[in-house]
Design brief:
- By secondary structure, the chain is of the alpha+beta class.
- The protein starts with a strand and ends in a 22-residue tail after the last helix.
- The chain is about 30% helix and about 25% strand.
Length: about 375
């Protein structure tokens, strides 16, 4: 008989091996670093709620055949504190002996003591399970966006992920993009090049503390937002900056000449690659300006493109900014209290990025 129970220290070896095999599609034993990440994020995190745990599924032989990673985020809906739990890695052994393991894990997670359950990584199969269990898709936060900065280099970067041997073509793509840049007024593709900064604005490097202050400021007035106090935001930022597989962290704030902040951005970049945008924060009415400064900064640092996660205001700003959108994984929500779900479903929320799952070390940590 199969069993679902809380994840424990003794399960780390089996769970990390299952993760490597089913989600990373790699053979061999999991590294010490991967095992340590499972422990630090899912068991020992400083803001972990001991009543809301990750779960393992045991088959009739007592072997772990599935896992759902759960971490908690302290949220405010209006002035009301709520316990939010995010469902991250949901995986089951692909041997066909127990095809319902994933569904049992998700159902057990949703039955937990949290006020609201969410995920930003629900692929099509998982999304269908959420909706069958009366969950809902948070549409405005469920798309991945791409911005091409250097067309030849961008195409090469995408192809190189599937065919690494194409690395040798890098010099050719750089030459092609330089020629395109010289013809920016004569080519439709050259319209992808970012424009100069408007007069009276400056964008400069920011410390983690400065970006934390910006996140708190831009979250003010939003109905559903993480409770960034008590060191939680500083902890998230400290973990989030270390993503070696994505590249070096870039944290910038855009402000007026007088020092009034308009917004900022946090992304990772390997020069010559596609930058991964973790967070964009903007004051009301200034999202487009901050987005333009992000594009320009990444281009100047040698990025061939950018990739990030949608927000409702960003969808509106994209109409004049040559952006591409794709549906890879949905953000979903489940709660019995409609007063909690309403601001999330309407887009009046801070979600994903620093407020979700993708800041942790399993994203971009290069762990195997």
């Amino acid at each position: 008989m199969s069993v679902v129970r809380p994840f424990a220290v003794a399960d780390i070896d089996q769970v990390s091996a299952l993760y490597k095999r089913t989600l990373l599609h790699r053979k061999g034993d999991p590294s010490v670093e991967l095992r340590d990440c499972f422990r630090s994020f899912y068991l020992d995190g400083p803001f972990r709620d001991p009543e809301i745990t990750s779960l393992v599924h045991l088959d009739d032989r007592g072997t772990i055949s599935g896992f759902v990673g759960v971490h908690t985020v302290p949220y405010l809906v209006g002035d009301r504190p709520v316990r939010a739990a995010f469902c991250g890695a949901l995986m089951s052994r692909e041997e066909g002996r127990d095809p319902m393991a994933g569904a049992r894990l998700l159902k057990a997670f949703l039955a937990g003591p949290q006020d609201v359950s969410m995920s930003e990584t629900a692929i099509a199969v998982t999304q269908a399970m959420w909706t069958r269990l009366r969950g809902s898709v948070i549409a405005g936060h469920s798309l991945d966006w791409f911005r091409v900065l250097q067309p030849a280099g961008f195409a090469h970067a995408l192809a190189n992920r599937k065919w690494p041997a194409l690395t040798t073509l890098s010099p050719i793509t750089r030459i092609a993009d330089r020629l395109l840049a010289r013809r920016r007024h004569a080519s439709t593709l050259a319209a992808l090049l970012p424009g100069p900064a408007p007069a009276g604005l400056m964008t400069k490097d920011a410390s983690l503390d400065e970006f934390a202050a910006l996140m708190r400021r831009t979250s003010t007035g939003i109905s559903a937002r993480p409770d960034w106090d008590n060191g939680y935001l500083e902890h998230v930022l400290d973990v989030a900056r270390r993503k070696p597989a994505y590249g070096e962290p870039v944290i910038m704030i855009t402000s007026t000449r007088s020092g009034e902040p308009l917004g900022g951005f946090f992304y990772h970049l390997n020069a010559g690659g596609i930058g991964r945008v973790l967070q964009i924060a903007a004051m009301p009415g200034h999202g487009g300006t901050v987005l333009d400064r992000l594009f320009a900064d990444a281009y100047e640092r040698g990025a061939v493109g950018l990739r990030g996660r949608s927000q409702p205001w960003l969808l509106q700003a994209s109409t004049s900014r040559q952006m591409i959108f794709a549906s890879n994984a949905a953000s979903v929500i489940h709660t019995k209290d409609q007063t909690i779900s309403a601001p999330f479903l309407s887009g009046d929320c801070v979600l994903n990025g620093l407020a979700g799952e993708s800041w942790n070390g399993l994203f971009g940590g290069g762990l195997t």
